[in-house]
Amino acid sequence: MDFAYPRPQLQRSQWTSLNGPWRFRFDDECAFTIPAEIDGWPMQITVPYPPESRASGIADRGFHKACWYQREFDLEPGSDRVILRFGAVDYAARVWVNGRLVVTHEGGHTPFWADITHVLDASGRQTVTVRVEDDPHDLTKPRGKQDWQLEPHSIWYPRTTGIWQTVWLERVPRTYVEKIRWTPEVEGYAIKIEARVGGDAADDLAIEVELRHGERLLARDRYQVLEREVDREIVLSDPGIDDFRNELLWSPERPTLLDARLRLYRGNQLLDEFSSYTALRSVHILRDRFMLNGRPYTLRMVLDQGYWPDTLLAAPGDAALRRDVELAKAMGFNGVRKHQKIEDPRYLYWADRLGLLVWEEMPSAYRFTRTAIKRTVREWTEAIDRDYSHPCVIVWVPFNESWGVPELTAVRVQRHAVEALYHLTKTLDATRPVIGNDGWESSATDIIGIHDYDINTEHIRQRYGAEIAPEQLFDRRRPGGRILTLDGYPHRGQPIMLTEFGGIAFEKEPDPDVKRIWGYTVARSEEEFDRLYSQLLETVIHTALFSGFCYTQFADTFQEANGLLTADRKPKIPLERIAEVTKVSRTYIPGGV
Questions:
Q1: Which stretch of DSSP H or E encloses residue 424?
Q2: Which of 147, 195, 367, 557 is most solvent-facing, going by the fewest CB within 10 Å?
Q3: Average pLDDT of every residue of the chain
Q4: Which of 129, 147, 172 lies at the terminal end of a domain, its last residue?
Q5: 202 and 264 share one domain
Q6: Domain holding 120: CATH number?
Q7: pLDDT at 588
Q8: Range of 210's domain?
Q9: Is 210 left (phi over 0), alpha (psi -120 to 50) or beta?
Q10: C-beta separation of 546 from 538 below 8 A
Q11: What is residue 96's predicted lDDT score, i.e. its pLDDT?
């Protein structure tokens, strides 16, 4: 396992991974409530791989409502604090250290932590126990593509239970920086920083921020901490010349990151120090175009579900996450739509570092109830908070294809849910566009996303060609059998993007573990796959109505054999050929690509 520090935008030097072997057991009857009741540990699991996965050593994809984990670690108590952190645990977790409950958390895709300083054993030998409840039949929890049937069917895949991202410990001072957030302001050539101090209260605190571009010092400022917070704007020296100014702008073509070093002082005493990074990058909508750094930018994206054959939702390691970013770029895409998954922060780090745009989408619940909406709101809020500072994240998508809100055309309260999540997202982050419901039945949205899997390019031209007025499109066209906009929400000039299309299935090397393949269209040979992809991409790219597109999909995912890559990331046709087709230019749009 090659797991790097899991929280790259607040990276400390003193940390210890707890990935590796843990004791494990299922608890199908929910017979145990505290660690002391457990009468044995019949299995061992490799964390952070879920028990359904082969890499975990368990490989049990049956229905299990609850499970338990336990392991020891050596850590001597000291004068500092010790924080226990979990990247993600699906779905509801309770954590004990040395038999004492230290934290509970609900939500399968977002991090949580506990200060365990007060429960450490003086002997230096510590025990952590985790109980996870994850009812496989509960459709009111955000679960994304995790199937509720025993065998994966249609477009749903094996479940993920329990720990599926890194578990780690870190030592921090008694008073420390608990959280930071970066907001770029390209127009003012500035970076806003928000920081919060945790731990013991202390007087005369200040935070020093140092920003660098390579070896070049951009800023070194010191701000007083008031009420445990710093909220300041760092204005960079304006070079006055566009070429020089643009050197600092982040884009997929030139992913310029600004390295940051932050220090917390009490008077002249250094208390805390860590590294971070940010970028100068702006995204917004201007009329019918997506704008990156103030210029129209055509999005060429691929839908990425973030599954691996042996590890499921969990990444095999940091190298695998980096490789997925590199492969998307090698195929000519400038962005990915992470579909029904809040991805590991290390993926976002590599997207930041290597230059790949990311649409972040909330995993869906599949029943509409007050409980489902409360759970969605809570977890979505945590996801936005976690990923706000990543420059690669450019769009938020709280709902997809009316999943979890299936009666949008008839039930007003379901419309209210979509509208509420749209406005909540805009409140939590005023810097990025938001798609209320991607695919069809749009209401509150900054971009109208259309899902259309028709492989017939003549049909695509007839629906979306130059002779089709937008009002005719929204009044008459029904891709997927769904209306594109709800009554009362006419097209207001927002960008229109084809955010799902293609889905061409082709098995270059049949997978013995998959009983049947699934796709919207099936190609019988490499040549036919190449021809269908080429014809479809050429048609979509040259359709002026679209200001961006997202092809389905990046890699085969279990029974869905419609990836450009196989499940183990081998290209079905040469990468160079895919890139050649994906990057075909269309009529020049100023600032476009």
A1: helix 412-428
A2: 367
A3: 93
A4: 172
A5: yes
A6: 2.60.120.260
A7: 36
A8: 175-278
A9: beta
A10: no
A11: 98
pLDDT of residue 13: 87
Helix (H) or strand (E) holding 20: strand 20-26
Chain segment 381-400, per-residue pLDDT in tens = 999 999 999 999 999 999 99
- E-state strands within 471-560: 496-502, 504-505, 521-522, 546-552
Q: What is the DSSP string of 306-338?
A: --BTTTBTS-S-HHHHHHHHHHHHHTT-SEEEE
Which residues have a Cβ under 8 Å from the Cβ of 253 and sit 6 or more positions away? 334, 355, 593
Helices (H) and strands (E) in the chain, counts: 9, 33
pLDDT of residue 585: 62
Q: Is residue 402 part of a domain?
A: yes
Strand partners, 129: 70, 96
1 or 327, higher pLDDT? 327
**Based on the domain organization, do 435 and 378 belong to the same domain?**
yes
Poorest-confidence range of 305-309, 469-473, 554-558, 568-572? 469-473
User: CA-to-CA distance for 138 and 157, rounded, in angstroms?
Assistant: 15
- Based on the domain organization, do 206 and 327 belong to the same domain? no
Would you say residue 128 lies in a domain?
Answer: yes
Specify if 535 maps to a domain: no
Q: Are residues 189 and 146 in the same domain?
A: no
* DSSP-derived pairing of the beta strands 521-522 and 504-505: parallel
In a domain, 332, yes or no: yes
Q: What is the residue whose two structure tokens read 């109830």? A: 369
79 and 212 both lie in a single domain: no
Residue 29 is predicted with a pLDDT of: 93
Q: How far is CA 248 from CA 218, 405, 496, in A?
A: 10, 42, 30
Token pair listed for 205: 């605190």
Query: What is the number of domains present in the chain?
Result: 3
Q: Would you state the pLDDT for residue 591?
A: 36
